[in-house]
Structures
1.
Amino acid sequence: MKESLGATGLLLNEPLLWEKGKKGRCGFSLPRRDVEPCPLDEALTRQGLDFPDLSEVDVVRHYTRLAQWNFGVDTGMYPLGSCTMKYSPKTNEKQASLPGFTGAHPLLPSGLSQGALKMMFEFEQYLDEITGMHATTLQPAAGAHGELTGMLIIYAFHKKQGAQRSKIIVPDTAHGTNPASVSLCGFRPVPVTSNEQGILSVEAVAEIMDQDTAGIMVTNPNTLGLFEENIQKIAQIVHAKGGLVYCDGANMNAVMGVVKMGDIGIDVMQLNLHKTFSTPHGGGGPGSGPVSVAKHLEPFLPVPRVVEENGAYILAEDYPDSIGKISAFHGAFGVIIKAYSYIRSMGPENLKKASQLAVLNANYIKERLKGTLHLPYDRPCMHECVFSDKHQAAQKIATLDMAKRLMDYGFHPPTVYFPLVVPGAIMVEPTETESKEDIDQFIEAFKAIANEAKEDPDLLHDAPKSCKVKRLDEVTAARKPCLAG
Amino acid sequence: MIYLPHTDEDIFSMLQVLGVDNLDDLFSTVPEDCRFTGDLNLPEALSEWELNDHMSTLSNTMAVSPEYKGFVGAGSYEHFIPASVSYLLGRSEFVTSYTPYQPEMSQGTLQAIYEYQTLAARLLGMEVATASHYDGATALAEALLMAVRITKQQKVAISSLIHPLYRRVVQTYFAPTGYEVVELPYLNAGVTDATGLDGMDDLAAVAIQSPNFFGCIENLQVLGQKAHDKKSLFVVSFTEALAYGLLKSPGTHGADIVGGEGQSLGIPSSFGGPALGILASGKKHMRSLPGRLVGKTKDLDGKTGFVLTLATREQHIRREKATSNICTNNSLSALAAAMYMASVGGAGIRKLAQLNHDKAEYLKTELKNAGFGIPFHSPTFNEFVVEFPSGFETTHKRLIEKNIIAGLCLAPYYPELANHYLLCVTETRSKNDMDALVREVKS
Amino acid sequence: MKEISEIHLPDDVRYAEDHEWARLEGGKVRIGLDDYAQDQLGDIVFVELPQVGDTFKQGEEFATVESVKAVCECYLPVSGKIIAVNTALEESPELVNTSPYGDGWFVEVNPGDLSEMENLMTHVACMEKLKGAA
């Protein structure tokens, strides 16, 4: 076997910002003063501000050392199910940092912002094409924000019809943001259970769909990595009783160029640019969650909308049925640039190829690890597959232990303990940017760990050993929260 | 394709393992009638070099510094960002990592965000700050929803001098909830008129922005007292975070929750996003806070470490009963703000804020001396309102042709304020820039 | 986690379906969470209790218990008015784990209808149910 990816190295300790520095130091070149001082009334000004005093060297060394404690996609494979941790092309970063974009003020007359507006207009069209929907808004700043936008659109639609419906059907496999978005919008989530094959059945939905249900919120492909095969019939049932179908498009990476959501009964959906469209995750954000809708929902989209008029682009506000505004300005423009660049770099054939290879990688892992890890749904998966820790229960090894040990092998663990319908779930999403040799190395690592579980389980219980810290006391952190220094 | 590493050989051998003939067969579980069999109608792929050209062309159409001298703030501010901050923010271990759910390999992000939480809390005079929200508008909306949850009251009063676009976001968030939003008018002095509160009861929150949309500094002490007299929570918002490098913090004035915008702290305008929603409260309300929180703890060896904590508030555990639906936040923006605050320091930020104030005062005085009306006499920070003569739109357009953007017209937001313009001066505008502006508007 | 046989179910309390216990003490009823529930939840980090003076019907949600990764709603086993809450749980939520029937108590209730106690399970019935479900 090749040498393990995980090694050890020199990691430096680094204190908190306020534990270093010296009074009088500054890391900011103060601009020249060319006007007279104009003191404010003392009653308005603060006494002082307890910030650390650091030189530029202090700041650069601080964050360089902190960065070295982190693991990113650029470090190694990061197979987090549901997150699509694909490689972020560096040219996208370059485009987003062009001064014409970074320096742009969002409220200037549109004649002064044509490049940005043109890009947004085109990008909306690209997303319409990929999703098969009719119109798109780029205003939501994250997937969950997009879900809320979608729910608000559904609410507004029914309100316009004169009906106040109170419920939304949410599958048991749904991501936590789904029921939370439903609640934020004043709806009550009504659960529906997936069948033994891990997908929604027509009967289960038909049983609960009624005139008081505003719609259903599906994820397709779902969080088990499976295509919701009955989606068209389910959409028909919901539509027949006047409801709408929302699709959480977080898993769009499985089906670009293969399925158009607008053609299979979806009325409204959000995309996650930081997942499917390669924008980097930034340690938790920023993301972007554009929402695409079918024609009958277009009037409800947030404003302003980018509109083409006589060869130029303007921002139009005159949409009386619009839900209003969901962000102060136009959305996460700096993120949108990166996704736009990605689509322009990939082109239509490579986007489809990306989905095909994402599905290939996931099925390959499923096939090669199914002997080692328990596979609750032994059927073809899409871009992610779900295992459980059932086989390791006899050795008193849990999913958590295997995840922690994977770090010592040089991999970020997959998503664990989600979806909730699989106890001890291990959700693996390699994405298409992982090569066969990296995936083979991941598979070997997992097999080695399963072996260690039998031969020397303490290696797992005590893992990780090679990171900046060992396992952390999350109980005390929650009992006695220390949230600021 | 350079981002797709699979060779034909790789694909072939992997398909063999699966016992499948070709890539299309991998989609056997997608029913025929769900399949799209055509080609996506998108432009052909560009090479990296063609993309550079294309994006440069788009970028060059934008009216930005240094060619243009902008005097517009209104929620998006031009400030200097040190090269060190941009450089450090490019570290791929920060940029390409995910939410730190596996803390052992994310200590970099976790310590950095703990530091951000601390500095943001200190800036605002509050006890706890979250790990970030999308922007100031959504942070304010979340702050108000939080107040409703805590007090169990169903009405909020918000100042009409809160940023008009923030108020629209609040209305959108509140539309399906059945909660009532009441707007407080403003006085001739350019600050909030809170007398209407006397007749109100059952308020969850009173929300004030300071400095407000007109750039005026509100009397938070008095307003906070009024809010508390009404047994309501006092929510303070802001669009220009730099102001608190100099001004008394919302916390010292009794703010219960603060929800505002941190873009001024090391984040470029970027056509309005990504931004940085800053949300903070006292410890007593921390369990009602939406969004992620990083906490300090120890590992098995007793070494200090950091974890996401109080996660039971959040959507992945509490689901429909969560304090919010937020998952992805604006972590990298928070990191930029922390780097900025660490670089500028306590003395530095005060000097910088003072410089902002003084430059704006200079322009205000020059315009006043040139005969233009300054309608609101309350003290301002780095923005102020000018009343130009009727027909100023023509002058405004002429100035744009000279690459000067002379403020934001207020009429679309406040129809009673025709010919009133909101001007902003930050440390990025020189005395020469301001003199040129005055010269041009006078002629 | 414990084996079913290791679960401690004292005989001086009655048990509700979702693992709250109730003990009659003089005219009032003391209520908490049983050993099975605390064991399943793991380390308890926070308990949200009602206010003194609140009233609930039997089966109404009156408290929530949090571990690091889970939240559990608690339902009042007998109707009544809350006359005392265990404020010690604010500083020391771990008492629910270490002493579920003693110092880890949740509330004391002035019962509305004492006959409701009869509807609750005895320790024998509760153990049978646990074994049956296993």
2.
Amino acid sequence: MKISKDTLKNISLLSKLEIEKSMKEKITKELESILLMVDQMNEVDTDHVKPMSHPLSKAQNLRKDLVSEDIERDEYIKNAPQSDDGYYLSPKVIDQK
Amino acid sequence: MSEKTEYGDWEPVIGLEIHVQLSTESKIFSNAPTKFGIEQNSQASIIDLGLPGVLPVLNEKVIEMAVKFGCSINAEISNTAIFARKNYFYPDLPKGYQISQLDDPIVGQGSVEIECNKEKKLIGITRAHLEEDAGKSIHDKYDSSSAIDLNRAGTPLLEIVSEPDLRSAKEAVAYLKKIHSIVTFLDISDGDMSQGSLRCDANVSIRKKGESEYGCRTEIKNINSFKFVEKAINFEILRQIKIKNLNKEIEQETRLYDSQKNETRSMRSKEHANDYRYFPEPDLVPLQISNEYIENIRKSLPELPEQKISRFCSEYGLSIYESEILNSSKEMSNFFEEVAISVKDVKTAVKWILGDFSAILNKNNCLVEDSLISSSDLVDLLNCLNENKISGPAAKKVLEILWNEDLKVEEIIEKENLIQISDEDDISRIISEVISKNPKQLEQFKKGKEKLFGFFVGQVMKTTEGSADPKVVNKILKEKLNQ
Amino acid sequence: MNDIISLNLEDQIGLLETKKISSYELTTLYLENIKENKDLNCFISVNEDALEQAKVIDNLKDRQSPVQGIPIAHKDIFCVKGHRTTCGSKMLENFISPYSSTVFEKLENSKTIMLGKTNMDEFAMGSSNETSFFGKVKNPINPLKSPGGSSGGSAAAVKANLCAFATGTDTGGSIRQPASFCGITGIKPTYGRVSRWGMIAFASSLDQAGIFARSALDSAIALEIISGFDEKDSTSINSKVPNLKEETTSEMEHSIGVPMQIIEKIEDVNVKNNFLESIKILEKNGFKTKQIELPFLEYSLPSYYVIAPAECSANLSRYDGIKFGYRCDNPKDLEDLYVRTRSEGFGEEVKKRILIGTYCLSAGYFDAYYIKAQKIRAMITESFKNAFKDVSVIAMPTCSNGAFELGSIQDPVKMYEQDIYTIPANLAGLPAISIPSGNTEEMPLGLQFIGNHLEEGKILNISHQFQKLTDYHV
């Protein structure tokens, strides 16, 4: 499977990664070789198989709707690269969602 | 009506996506509180923050609430709802993905009936699914930064998606109000649009009347009141009509509603078509919701307002008008039923509750749930009235006293001497007395002065201190005077 | 005294129980050895409070757990409250976790002493411990060679006697392959047997915590402690943890399945012969073996290299420079923050896997890649299910080669092929163990046993029995 410049650009944008210009060719080739290996999957007929997203067959365990009061805001925010007055800070977001 | 003529032969096609914040104590995947904290980030647990290594565990209450909703819209409930990751980057989305549902939502196809312009219409609901809310970003607190508060991150949401069955802004409002009344009635949300516990996005497109294909649609966001829903949708419909009338194409996009300018505008972002790359959430396994569980919830559901209204009509013989007023609140409808079940004549109950009882509530600025007259008191009163123990006017007096004093109906009747005389022999005797005491008037009456009938009635009432049953008095007096 | 740190766990426990040595002394010995072997680069951080904690434990009145006082190491993927937890990445270089993982807590409650956090491939992605931001780990047997990965630091630490046993994680073989390269025992339990709470996620439906130790019996003791249902982990299995020590040492009969189609395809003659010899040893000593088929196993690698990157691409989205972790300097806007933080904070392998994962999940490719891979996963799981109708354990080599030279594998696919024999057990969620089985070119090889769902006892048992018949693990 060939990865075009546009494809690399698209997946980079979606995953918020930038490959340095000097590395783009190498990385593209490596990604292509990985996908080539992955394409081996096409040798298998899987038409009547149900996909498996969990190796378990258990049912989801549930939690009671109770509040626990152990939130340590100031401890947690210590790891924030930039914070002020209990807020996490990011560069100004221009557009509302 | 006017909006239809404005549209010419264009037909608006509208669908609403409503996000309802479920009123659980704790969040959907963590046990942090959902009440609004005063302090920013004081209700964001490590799970809500998406710290490395944390895992979600599902709150059982949200399933109950979602199933309640599904039952009330007659929808299919899934036995094995699956969660999925919706991937995108935004500062108020801590994990860089939202845990939501794509395939196999907990609630499937359902419908609700709305009334708009006196017409009833069935609006389809495609699905309702559970997901977690994001946090909030504040853009005007700092000059070059946005402040992120993740208190709201992880609050449970039920996203309700309607079929594109709405054909006007007014219908959209009616539908929104209907959903609002259902979720508040079921007590699964406080439905407060101004606080964001009920949010609405509208998908709007237009097509020529008679066409079956859908036109290109836009998504309108940032609508935070019922009033603005109508305005925003109307604006958008007209905007699209203008464009199409110029033979141009509608661009598929997301637009924000500006309530100050009353217009929608395109989001300025260089938003590449967001590919959310949904895939099943591997940290959660499929739910198993048994049919038994669903049935138990269905059985436990409180009757919805419109179901009650029809039932009152058929069960108690009420008119729709009467039934609607008696169902103006849950409390009023409960009060009425308590009375209706024990009272001898329901029609009297209806008349009195809508009339004198409501008047007393209004006079005292009171809601029925704070009434100083209980339903059993009212039953006693109405039964006495129906049994002719007291007269109508006497009953009104009793009602007043019931409100002001802590006495039972029987006690008041005795104390105030309000027992009505309705025994025909007794009344006959009294009437005979009165007639004999007033020969002049009798002669005048017999000569044709029919007005004097009232005089005799008055005299009987005076003699009995108002406690003679007027119906019996009238009947016997007529007989005697015409002898 | 130095020999004490090379004793197996059972014996060290014995010395502590009989007070022939104190935990303080034992911890001191290990810390000294860690210092001496600094250039192996096994540890990202050493616990400064270890000796203090050992003192406290020595002062406890009675023994509250079998492993009380035993010094151990944790792979730096397990969050430990108040300590740096880096996951081998620049992204979390200075992250101090405000909470602890269940694995850590269970071992801490059992009164072990944490000597430090071990080095690992970045975000557990790698098979050679060469992708760590904190530098490569060297194989203690030959420092020019790789210890395997991603849990290379833990494996090397156990081999070099820098701890009594160590925790690790295994997503595609990251415990078993390093165990094989370093000549020690490594076990990955059934998916869901050990809680993932506090274990930094790479691929959520494949990740599982496990143990490195000097023998199957040692690993049984440790595994039992970390196993068990955890209500904080929705993928945790609610099943009673058996007495693994007992199951390991009990009289158990086995019927060993050998997938000959796979064995026949092994290219390296030494590896093939080594495996066949191990099977012969077992047969000679009365163990039944049976040829089995494991259809579709050859598609494990492609299936894994869709599913794992897909899940990791989402799991690593939280690293955005806002709430914790690395942040680039002077971002000019939000997009710049995201892109530069992540491009500077992640290493190349991690970025590649995120890109592959994003690709496989993206519109137009989802069905062909992600869904297809999950279907193959289902088929492989079915293959194992069928095989286990006839046999109690399955034997395979752990890896198709011994430890290679650091830096010698540059082709990503060649590196991924390190895991062809280990990945199937992860896809099917089955327990698997690697034990030393001899050498090739003076580097150890590993024999792998795969068990049925929740049957850790069986694979521990056969491993223990093999270790009674051989001395590769000594």
